[in-house]
Amino acid sequence: MLKKIFLTTFLLFLVSQLGAQVTFQTKVSKNRVGINERLKVSFEMNKNGDNFTPPKFEGFRVVGGPNQSTSNTWINGKRSFSRSYTYFLNPTRKGTLKIGQATIKIDGSIYKTSPVEIEVTEAVKTPNQGGNADYIADQNVHLVAEVSNSNPYLNEAFTVVYKLYYTSQIGISNVNEVESPSYADSWNHLIPIQKLEMRQGVYKGETYNYVTWRKAVLYPQKTGELVIEPLTLNINVQVPSNRRDIFGNRINRQVPKVITAGKRTIKVKPLPEKNKPIGFTGAVGSFDLNYSLNKDVLKASESFQATVKVSGRGNLKLFSLPKITVPATLEVYEPEHTESIKTNLLGMQGSIQDTYTIVPEYQGNYPIPVVSFSYFDPNKESYVILSSKEHMVNVNEGPLADKTSTGQTVSNLLKPNLNYKQFNFIALETELQPISKTQSFFGKCNFYLLILGPFILLLLFAIWFKTQSTRRIDPVTERQKTANRLAKKHLSSAKKALKKKEAFYEALERALHNYLKAKLHIVTAEFSKDRISSLLEDKKVETNIIKEFVALLSDCEAARYAPTTSVGMQEDLDRASKLISKMDKQL
């Protein structure tokens, strides 16, 4: 009986001790997410603590939190306590990422969570973002890859145009690429876009605004399925909320989003083997052939040039030109290859040519055989063979070649008989004079120039140094001039767009950001107002200037959607110029 009582007491004590143990752990909404999905991470404890320190979240961007919640309940006289710190994260790269250890101090002891691994995959089509503003952003922003031809022939050009569609209900800003397609197994050329222009188009039967983000021309280099990797963008979406400011204007909520165009699969057809010409080198498109000589009457040892030129539209950089053939008594040098090609959305167009230099050795009439060139026309789905006309070259002066019974020259049958007169322009002899007959170097102009030159340079350097010292007498004035020049440099693009409200405020906001990039050495991803304020405080910038700078950034964001006048834009431009000048003197 005593043993049972002792055992029962021990078990109750053990259970009470286990119930009193401190737990501190990491909980995630999922262990596998797409690069455009959002991850919820909570750090939960069953006992109150102090000095909570989150991990660094390497490979993630914090888009929400920390949100703190506390629960304290009593059930049947038993107290239950829990506290959590919750963060919302967006992954910034693919792969296996790790959420590190968080720490907290409870009852004088330091507790740590265990690391959690998260697998980040490619972007998914419908990310689970949650929240009304996120839902509106998902429904009103789309990144689309438009392919001109999903079933081209091998080496036939097709284009991929990436368009960012968005409705007039929302606004977008701070667009940058997270993941760029590599276009494997194809020759590709990116067509530069000088300026992003907003246009109107139709997407899934509805009218959208859109900007063309990227244009690429591709020539597939293998048959079968060609996978185009997705383009992924990181953008900020301004979603209107239900709140209004003191002027009655709707306040926008900024939602960071990662959107993707998704993979595209292209099926590449092989070129037909039927009727493929002999000597076909892979030309696909529509071309013309021109074979010409710069002269057809000349003397022996003189040279003439033969040019083989192919022009048109197609894969001009991806095939070789046909070689020429000439009689054995004509000496042919390696051709000089030149290209004149432009690439646009229709593909490569222009011309390529090989220019041969040919030197005859003897008198005579020499026939220059025809040149043949073949290509595949994808529009006609057939091969085309082009042939040049035959040329005749008349060499009317020079040595005569001895003929054999077979009609060939003896020199060709035995060894080449070089004509050394063609090298007469090279000077092989020189005229030397004894040194004693030349005049002395001493006493000439060059002698005095070398003696006095260093002193003259030293005098010029002293004058320049004195001038620079005079300029540095008033450092305040010099810094003010430098700051004013810097402000004009960054605000020049905004000044040019004074008559266009949206373009003006975009240029003004970009100028402020570029100024911060140059001064604080930060990247675009770090442009949050809290981050900017913190960095400027570290640089000892006055608080009122920081507040005024952050307020100007907020005004630029709001002014795009609020009515304003040219007078107001001029005031904002002057305000920005003065702010940059003040801040630059303190930085």
Note down, in words, how this protein is organized.
There is one protein chain. With 587 residues, this protein is of the alpha+beta class. The protein folds into 4 domains: 102 residues, Immunoglobulin-like (Sandwich), CATH 2.60.40.740; 137 residues; 135 residues, Immunoglobulin-like (Sandwich); 112 residues, Four Helix Bundle (Hemerythrin (Met), subunit A) (Up-down Bundle). The protein is 25% helix and 39% strand. It is built from 9 helices and 30 strands. Strands 11, 12, 14, 15 and 16 form a 5-stranded antiparallel beta sheet that branches. Strands 21, 23, 24, 25 and 26 form a 5-stranded antiparallel beta sheet that branches. Strand 28 and strand 29 form a beta hairpin. The longest helix is centred in the C-terminal third of the chain and has 27 residues. The protein is extended. The termini are far apart. About 3% of the residues have low confidence.
